[in-house]
Amino acid sequence: MNTEPLAKCQRFLAALAHMRKLNMQAVAADKHQVTVMLPVQEALQNHQFKTYMHGGVLTTLVDTASSMSTLVALDEYELCPTLDLRIDHMSTPQLSQPLYAQAECYRITRSVLFTRATVYQASLDQPVAYAIATFMRPETGTTDSAFKALIDGTAAGLP
Amino acid sequence: MAQLREIVAHAHQSGDYQPVIEIIPYAKIIGVCCERFGEEMIFRLPKNPDNIGNPTLPAIHGGVIASFMELTAAFELTLQLDQPALAKIIDFSVDYMRAGRDRDTFAICTIERQGRRVGNCSIIAWQDKRSEPIASARAHFLLDSLTALE
């Protein structure tokens, strides 16, 4: 069974339509944390109004990175819905540079997963935003088995 | 920002808010639209296969729902300000209550307080019934962000 964290993250991103649309990339992952990148793209630019930056899309990036930190923290894929998410915006990101989110699942209990994330561009010491989130673990056997196999890399017959 | 004022004024006149929404590229990507009912603006996120974040239910990506709510607040503020400006977000907090199914989602923002510098918003999102929200959120926006950004 292929449980290599980065490959697992990449399979996860590839499986979700919205992630493919934004070309979201997993750039680093181990058991403890993941880093997800949102590349610079023309579709997210408005050259007319240079004052407004990543309205909304930063939230999608943070949600994705936080949920992927639970993916690598758990041995096997579980479909964990988000309970809540809070983001503090500390500075305005530059549209000309990719946006990174590094997330960590710092506590796993029987029912709940706790995560924290930092959004940055040039370096982690210059955060654009901080976020914390909680996820609910599903009851055993409720995760779709075909999708689980796809993410865990155990789906032999699937494309 | 004279241009923004023009776009907002024109939208209020014509009732077509799409040009305002298209100011923010991500709002256009996920497909946000908006309609005015008297004093109330209701924002709509039409069913869109590209917004799926859970293919097994299928359900809308949680980040897309949160972004839609954040954008709802940002547009509501932009449209309600005496001097239209693009408010800058300070913080955002969302509670998810039900899965966002693959269908149309609606959101409405209440400006709880609008001070000189900060706007305090609460947002709810629903699909079937407004009394059964799929998520609720709070956000603070910096209103003097225009000068702060320059």
Automatic annotation (TrEMBL), chain A:
User: Which molecular function terms from Gene Ontology are attached?
Assistant: 1,4-dihydroxy-2-naphthoyl-CoA thioesterase activity
**One Pfam family from the UniProt entry?**
4HBT
The name this protein goes by in its record: PaaI family thioesterase
The protein's matches in SUPFAM superfamilies, at most eight in alphabetical order, are given as:
Thioesterase/thiol ester dehydrase-isomerase
* Domain Thioesterase span(s) in chain numbering: 52-123
The UniProt keywords, alphabetically, are:
Hydrolase
Q: Does the keyword Hydrolase apply?
A: yes
The record's CDD domains line, in alphabetical order, gives:
PaaI_thioesterase
Task: Kindly state one GO CC term assigned in the UniProt record.
Answer: cytosol
What the entry lists under InterPro entries is as follows: HotDog_dom_sf, PAAI_dom, Thioestr_dom
UniProtKB/TrEMBL annotation, chain B:
Source species of the chain: Neptunomonas marina
Superkingdom, natural source: Bacteria
Domain Thioesterase, first and last residues per copy? 60-132
The record ties this protein, via Gene3D superfamilies, to: Hotdog Thioesterase
GO terms for MF: thiolester hydrolase activity
One Pfam family per UniProt: 4HBT
Its protein name is PaaI family thioesterase
